[in-house]
Design brief:
The protein is an alpha/beta fold and 497 residues long. The chain has a single domain, classed as Alkaline Phosphatase, subunit A (3-Layer(aba) Sandwich), CATH 3.40.720.10. It has 15 helices and 14 strands.
Length: 497
């Protein structure tokens, strides 16, 4: 709270009342801090809903349907970051960056799963020398558990470092897997705990059928609904492959952008309901008020935003806003700063330093992100830049975003094969500059047509900063073998050819 400048002369009744109020606020704040300290270190709950576009959440401006009341309520209790940028547009490098505070070109888990073949199953995973969030908190006495969807979050990629329990049965959510996770929380409620919860509920195949009537005639909507629900039951029993879902829609003439987007938003609403279940249990266990709760995602998804043919499981290949702008909500202990919205840019690598700051735990020196606390405690804009790398196609794309501008470049497949992904050639295959204030949808490349001198200068400055960033990275990963069963599961998800 800011106190007005002290006036000269005697204090009036209003001044005395203000002083008394300020004193009372200070007393209450001190008592609250002492109460939290007496209760021990705050629990940490980190939630990642895979493939969640920020612009499909009501609290991020989505108006077509009321889909996310529980996410909205969490945002009302916490700090919402309006412009949060993932480090990559697909799961593996984005989550490694989230859990290590390292850029993809630094942690080195940058291979494309699409390039795997059954006869060359070597893949580079996180080095044991790197320090994860779980390792830091485990060293400070936290009980650590991860409940994930596995496959692209298989612990063998390096995510398992520091977790005493790592489960991989959260592909789609139900009473059994969510209940098991909550049992672990209840069993560890009397000590500091770190829960990492990840799910593919919002990842393809999209199984949320509640909005089909919005896009199909009632009789067709009902037929598609029954087919999707039957498929979902078979998937949960292990009797259906994730990669076959689009054929379920094709056979019913329902494989279209409108249908897949409706199913996706329905899946977002389903995931939101499960978030409500988890928050309710945290409240019942008297953990919610004390906890730091972080809600985010690794990347978004495309529904014919750029191409009429890209509307199902289309992420990983580009760095447009629908792919890399994801939600970030941070609920502080005692709901401090509740309802705050931050417009300054934030990055996935900033999550780990932020939570360690809130937990008053020192992080590793190698962290490349910074705490976001100053962004909600100060009204001053921040000048940090965000970097993104695609890493999931034969070509390579890299981008740098600032508060106003976003600069992208594309590197051809031949250069990737010749020089690797952690480089920028002297002449990229393509360049783009976008004014995010005037053109938030990134529709007009300012480097095409008649280019204004100021835009060329801006592009040159960002190009130089991007190259310096990439050159400064020192990748440190190790080779690992992915077994044939895991490769088949990745192929079913669309990640392996």
């Amino acid at each position: 709270m800011r106190v007005a400048e002290k006036r000269r002369g005697h204090a009036g009744a209003a001044d005395l009342a203000l002083c008394a109020f300020v004193g009372l606020v200070g007393l209450v704040t001190c008592r609250a801090e002492r109460s939290r300290e007496a209760a021990g270190p705050p629990p940490l709950v980190l939630v990642s809903f895979d493939t969640l576009r920020a612009d499909r959440l009501n609290c991020y401006g989505y108006e077509a349907r009321t889909a996310t009341p529980h996410v909205d309520a969490l945002a009302g209790d916490g700090v919402l970051f309006e412009n949060h940028l993932s480090a990559a547009p697909w799961t593996v490098p984005a989550h490694v960056s989230l859990l290590t505070s390292l850029w993809p070109s630094s942690h080195g888990v940058t291979g494309s799963l699409r390039e795997l073949r059954e006869d060359e199953s070597a893949y580079r995973v996180l080095s044991d020398s790197r320090t994860t969030l779980a390792e830091v908190l485990s060293a400070h006495g936290y009980a650590t558990a991860a409940f994930t969807a596995g496959d692209t979050l298989d612990p063998r990629f390096g995510y398992g470092q520091g977790f005493s329990l790592y489960r991989t049965d959260m592909t789609k959510l139900h009473d059994g897997n969510v209940g098991g996770m909550l049992e672990w929380v209840a069993a560890h409620r009397d000590r500091p705990l770190f829960l990492f919860w990840h799910t593919f509920e919002t990842h393809a195949p999209y199984l949320g059928t509640r909005y089909l009537d919005d896009v199909l005639p009632p009789d067709r909507a009902e037929r598609v609904r029954r087919a999707v629900e039957r498929y979902g039951e078979k998937l949960r029993r292990g009797e259906a492959q994730a990669g076959r879902f689009e054929h379920v829609l094709e056979r019913r003439g329902a494989f279209s952008p409108a249908v897949t987007e409706a199913l996706y938003v329905g899946a977002v609403a389903d995931a939101d309901r499960w978030l409500g279940v988890v928050v309710a249990e945290l409240r019942r266990l008297d953990l919610y008020d004390r906890s730091v709760v972080v809600f985010t995602s690794d990347h978004g998804e495309e529904f014919a935003d750029r191409s009429p043919d890209a509307f199902y499981n289309a992420h990983g290949h580009s760095l447009w806003t629908e792919m890399v702008r994801v939600p970030l909500i941070v609920k502080l202990p005692g709901q401090e700063a509740a309802g705050t919205r931050v417009s300054s840019l934030s990055r996935g690598v900033d999550v780990m330093p932020t939570v360690l700051d809130l937990l008053r735990v020192a992080g590793s020196r190698e962290m490349q992100g910074v705490s976001l606390r100053p962004l909600w405690e100060s009204e001053r804009p921040d000048a940090r830049a965000g970097f993104v790398e695609s890493l999931e196609s034969q070509d390579e794309a890299k981008a740098i975003a600032t508060g106003r501008y976003k600069y992208l470049l594309r590197i051809g497949a031949e250069a990737v094969v010749r020089e690797g992904r952690a480089q920028v050639p002297a002449v990229p295959a393509w360049r783009g500059l976008y004014d995010l204030e005037d053109d938030p949808g990134e529709t007009t490349n300012l480097l095409e047509g008649r280019v204004r001198a100021e835009h060329e200068r801006q592009a040159s400055a960002l190009d130089r900063e991007l190259r310096e960033h990439v050159a400064a990275q020192h990748p440190d990963s190790r080779p690992a073998e992915l077994d044939p069963d895991m490769i088949e599961r990745l192929r079913a998800l669309g990640y392996v050819r």
